[in-house]
Amino acid sequence: MPPTGRVGYHTLHVTLRNVALHSRIFYKEAQTLAQAGYRCAVVGLPQGGQTVYARGGVLVLPYPTGAAVLRRLCFVAWAVARLRPAVLHVHSPELLLLGLWARLRYGCRVVYDVHEDYRANRHYGAEYAQCRPWQRLVGTLLRLWERLALRWVMA
C-alpha cells in the first residue's frame, strides 16, 4: 500500500552491527522502498565520518562515531520517536526489545530480519572465546528471546 497522509516515515531500518550503507539493508531494501514511493530511513554504523544525509531517496542516520551499544540504542529510540515509522525493520536480536517498546509506544509494526544464526554464532564463534563458559547459556537465551518475539513481530 502506498504511503498515505500519515505523519512520519513508512519504514525505518535499524542495525547495530552493519554500516548504514549495507548492501542488503540499504541498496536492496531501503532504496527499493524509496523508489516505490515510500519514505524510508536507515540507522547504522557510520562510513567515513558522515553525519545525517539523504542518498537515493533514503534518509541515512549514522550512529555517532565511536558510540557504544547503549548509546546506539538511545540513538535508535530517538530516531523512532522523531521519525514515527509505520514499520520498524530491525536487523539484530538486540533490537527486539526496542522494537517491542516502539510497538507499544507508537503503534508501529515490527519486522525482524534474521541475517544469520545468532545462537550458533554465540555457541561456536571465536570472537566469544573469552566468555566460553557462558556461550551456550547466552545462545540459548537469545534463541528463547527470538521465539518469544514471534508472538508480536509482524514478520
Fold and architecture overview:
The chain is α/β, with parallel strands linked by helices. It has five helices and six strands; from the N terminus they run βαβββαβαβαα. The protein has helices at residues 23-35, 69-83, 96-106, 118-124, 132-149; strands at residues 11-19, 40-45, 53-55, 58-62, 87-90, 109-112. Strands 3-4-2-1-5-6 form a six-stranded mixed beta sheet. Helix 3 links the parallel strand 5 (87-90) and strand 6. The longest helix has 18 residues, at 132-149. The protein starts with 10 loop residues before the first strand and ends in a 6-residue tail after the last helix.
Task: Find the count of extended strands (DSSP E, 2+ residues).
Answer: 6
Poorly predicted runs of 5 or more residues: 1-6
Global structural class: alpha/beta
Give the N-terminus to C-terminus distance in angstroms: 16 Å
Order of helices and strands: EHEEEHEHEHH
How much β-strand is present in the residues? 15-25%
Q: What does the radius of gyration come to?
A: 16 Å
Q: What is the helix tally? A: 5
Query: If strands are numbered along the chain, what order do they take across the biggest sheet?
Result: 3-4-2-1-5-6
Helicity level: 40-55%
Shape descriptor: globular
Q: Main β-sheet: number of strands, strand sense, barrel status?
A: 6 strands, mixed
Mean pLDDT: 83
